[in-house]
Amino acid sequence: MEQLTDIGALDREGIAGLVAELGQATYRTRQLVRWLYARGVVRFEDMSDLSAEFRTALAERYVVGTAETVVRQESADGTRKYLVRFADGVSVETVGLPEGERLTVCFSTQAGCAMGCSFCATGRAGFVRDLSPGEMVRQIMLVARDFGRRVTNAVAMGQGEPFANYDAVLGALRLMNADDGLGIGARHLTVSTCGLLPGIRRFATEPEQFTLAVSLHSAVAVTRGALMPGVRSVSLTALRQAIIGYADATGRRPTLEYALIEGVNDSPAELEALVAFARGLLVHVNLIPVNAIEGVDLKRSAATRARAFADTLSAVGIEASIRTERGADIDAACGQLRQHEVGRGISDRAL
Ligand code: SAH
Ligand code: SF4
Fold it and tell me: Which H/E stretch holds residue 285?
C-alpha cells in the first residue's frame, strides 16, 4: 500500500489549499484545524461535521500522524520529560514545566541539531531530521493531556535550531496561537535561536507578537566561535545589528541567553564584552548556570560569578536575571535533551 502523508506536514495555508483542492468551502479549513488541533481527533471519520465525501477524500490522501510517549519521567520539582516518538520511529524530547497557574512546554523543532554547540547534548549528537508543524503542535497537546490542563506557554527550546526549520516552526506557532488551534497567546510563544540572521530578520516582520530569545553565551568572538561552531561565521556586530533591527521593528524586548561556564565565559573580560554588547540594546539578559552533560568536561560558574554578572549588568541599566534550574534530576534542564535509543538508562518510569 502506498504510504499516506501525515496531514501534520501542512501548515494552515497548506490545509486551506487542500480544502480548496477538494472543492470544499473556505470555512472547512477552520473546522478541520479545530478537529486536528483544538480537539485532537486522529481519525477523519470521527470529524462529524465534515461531509462524508470530504472525510473520505481526506482519508484517501492523508493520515493524522501519531506522537507517542515512549518514556515519561517526573522530577522532584514537578517537571516532566517525555520521550516522544513519531510514526517513522524518530523520537525527540519534550518537557512540561508547571508553575502555579502556568504550564510551559519546552518543545523540539528538529530531531537532533546540526549546530554542534559544544555544551549542548543535542548538538553533540548531531542532526536527524526536521519536524513538521503538526509534530511540534502534538508535543504541546501530549503534555496538556498528561497534565490534564491547558498549556499556557510554549518555548522552542527543546532539540533543534528553530530558524534552521523556519517555515515549519512558524506554521506550528500559528497553529498553537490560533483560536481554532491551541489558543496560546502569541506573547507566550517563544523561539530561541543560536543566532541565524535571516531567521531573526524574518521573525521581526511577522505580524504576531511572538517572543524572541537569542543564545549568546559569549560576546567575545573566539570564545563564541569555539562554543558554537555552527554560527562561527556570524559576526557579533552583525548579530547585534539584527537584534537592534528586531527591537526597532517590533518594539519588543528579546532575551539574550548566557550559560555561565567556569573558566570559559565567566571572566571579567567576558563580562566587560557582554556589557559592551548589551548596552544600548532593548534586551533582557538571562544568565543560566550551565547544566552538566554526559562526556563533556564543563563546570558551572560559582554562584558568586553569576551574581557578579547580574549585578554588573543591572548597575549599567541592563535588565538581567539568573534562571532557576528545573528538572535537572531527570536531565530535562536546558541543553540536556539528547537523541535516545528507546529506554536507555531511563527505564524506571517507562510506560
Ligand atoms: N537551538 C536553539 C534552541 C534550543 S537550545 C538555541 O540554541 O537557542 C535552548 C537553550 O538551552 C539555548 O539557549 C541553549 O544555548 C541552551 N543550552 C544548551 N546547552 C545548555 C547547557 N548544557 N546548559 C545550559 N543551557 C544550555
Ligand atoms: Fe542546537 Fe541550540 Fe543545542 Fe546549539 S544549543 S546545538 S543550536 S539545540
Answer: strand 284-289
The question of whether 93 is a catalytic residue gets the answer yes
Letter for the amino acid at 339?
Q
pLDDT confidence bin for 329, thresholds 50/70/90: confident
Neighbours of 182 (CB within 10 A): 22
The model scores a pTM over 0.70: yes
Give the three-class secondary structure for 24.
coil
For 315, counting Cβ atoms within 10 Å of its Cβ (0-12 exposed, 13-18 middle, 19+ buried), the class is: exposed
Question: Which residues share a beta bridge with 105?
Answer: 96, 154
In three-state secondary structure terms, 77 is coil
Cβ atoms of 181 and 136 within 8 Å: the answer is no
Mark whether 139 and 210 lie in a shared domain. Answer: yes
The parent domain of residue 250 ranges over 67-330
Assign 124 to helix, strand or coil.
helix
Q: Give yes or no for residue 122 CB within 6 A of ligand 2.
A: yes
Q: What is the 3-state secondary structure (H, E, C) of 264-295?
A: CCCCHHHHHHHHHHHCCCCCEEEEEECCCCCC
In Å, how far are 14, 38, 283 from 121, measured between CA atoms? 34, 33, 27
| CATH code assigned at 218 | 3.20.20.70
Three-class SS of residue 241? helix
Q: Is 161 in the pocket of ligand 2 (CB under 6 A)?
A: yes
Strands 153-156 and 127-130: unpaired
Mean pLDDT of 128-144: 98
- The answer to whether residues 106 and 240 belong to one domain is yes
The single-letter DSSP state of residue 204 is T
Gap between the Cα atoms of 59 and 264, Å rounded:
54
- 343 belongs to a structural domain: no
159 CA → ligand 1 middle, Å: 9
Mutate to test the pocket of ligand 2, among 108, 122, 216 (most ligand atoms within 8 A of CB): 122
Radius of gyration of the chain (CA): 21
Query: Percent of the chain having pLDDT more than 90?
Result: 87
Same domain? 200 vs 281 = yes
- Judgement on whether residues 275 and 289 belong to the same structural domain of the protein: yes
Q: Tell me the CA–centroid distance for residue 325 and ligand 2, in Å.
A: 18
Residue 350's pLDDT is 30
